[in-house]
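<context>
A single protein, sequence plus fold
<entry> Chain with its tokenised backbone below
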Amino acid sequence: MATTTTLDALHPNLELRYRTIPPFLRYYISSGRLRVSPYPMISLEDALDIVMTEVTPSLAGHVLAEDVYAPEDIPSSPTTNVDGYAVRFHSYTSFIASDPPGVYKVLTSLTHKLFSELPKGSIFRINTGGPLPTGTDSVIMVEDTELESAQKDADGEDMEEEQVKTRAQVSPGENVRQPGSDVRKGELVMQVGEVITSAGGEVGTLAFVGRREVKVFRKPVVALLSTGNELLDLQSRKPKSDGGWGGIWDTNRPSLQAALEGMGYKVVDLGIVADDIDAHVRAITMGLEMADVLLTTGGTSMGTSDLLKPIIERRFNGTTHFGRVAMKPGKPTTFASIPTKTAAHGRKFLFSLPGNPAAAIVTFHIFVVPALRRLGAWPSSGSPSLWDGVYKTPYRIFVYKLQDTMPLDPRVEFHRVIVRSTPNGLLATTTGSQRSSRMTSLCGANGLVQLPPLAVGGPSKLEAGGTAPAVMIGEIQMQSTREGEERRIGVTSPRV
């Protein structure tokens, strides 16, 4: 049978925090239900600074953990950078070109060994990237030759070129890549800390120098759970009740799992956790055993069943670094750490995002993604806090023009938008109502316009046609000059 307890019995510091609340506010706390949060409201800047201070690089994703050096010259011998024929320019007995324009017998890798001297009066057919045979030093392009004669098959059809006529005089070393001209033996080609992205350049570089394996830092594993008796699992065959209120579909787990796995992180799905202390303890314990970071949604607001913060502090001796943030959406966002012997630095981190689905996705991109990358030893471009009012995230770009008027709130707000690249620059269009429960406001959204907080004596809104910065969470759409036609361009940060 489920057990219950009051928040006062569960929360070790609640009485102390109660005494710090001004007397005229204590009236709003009664019968175990908080009317005033014991967690101070902190600014977005302070919240980001706390996350990035507490999270230290102990794990990593596809980030190099060693320097990579070229084991040999690349190319290791002279090779051609065109399709054509290897010829001799230099003569060791005269300054006259050894193979001037004329008719030559064609040899191939099937009729001549590379390390044997090329016979006089012959040239060697070669394809791009192929090594030059001994004695040759230049390559004439196939476009500068013509077929003179060919071997015939039984039907009299040309089968294999026998002689070609060269029509140009090449310079010494023309169309040839010299040994080590791309990379010298012992040259540093990749450094510790470089991110191996999905763009292909880093993997290609490793293959280029012959590295089949390389040391990388391990990616953090994320345990994911939703909380709330009202939630229904979309994958469950249990139907919603026809009579009365049947609950709501759990939106957060599927959406966050898709986002995490799209970035290459392994996810441990802990399912839906009931509003019960023992269920919370079991789920968190399992998450600590199986993952490096715990990501929960719901259970951090002001409801009587919002149990997460006191459970972290009372049952796991954890530390809640912040429990409220002055931002919209996402005020109840919580960041905590839990001591454990299995973690590199003696603790693991927990992010508890708001239960409202749009707020969960927004705060995931603002807080969780930078923290996962810091754990993954991604290189930092500076303090991950606010600078000139702009959150310095790996996704950050500037939107040149707002297509819609956007009202300001006393808190920093992240307004969901669709950013398009047009002949007139980057334009941001609102996705409509910004209610934190409205998940459809993120359908198609690829950016979060950061609106400044409402200031005394300042404007109450940003007008259409004005400019604002945006945190990019997806690919920018490119608008064609033909009306109604769009395509996407990948200008977001690399996926790992």
